[in-house]
Amino acid sequence: xxxxxxxxxxxxxxxxxxxxxxxxxxxxxxxxxxxxxxxxxxxxxxxxxxxxxxxxxxxxxxxxxxxxxxxxxxxx
Length: 76
Fold this sequence. Notes:
Layout: H1 2-26, H2 40-71
Helix pairs in contact: 1-2
């Protein structure tokens, strides 16, 4: 039971770090040229949702990779 709690906390931390890094990376994308002028709130919302989506995908990859790596010990 304790192991599930640790896994949940580690997963949350990985997701938050991945979303933060994705948000920093999204700053390099110039969505202002795509979105109509005067739509500041919508542009910020698009940045936020893009960062959450990208961060979730990266975090999910990292968590799955760690889980799979830990299961390799059962092979030997």
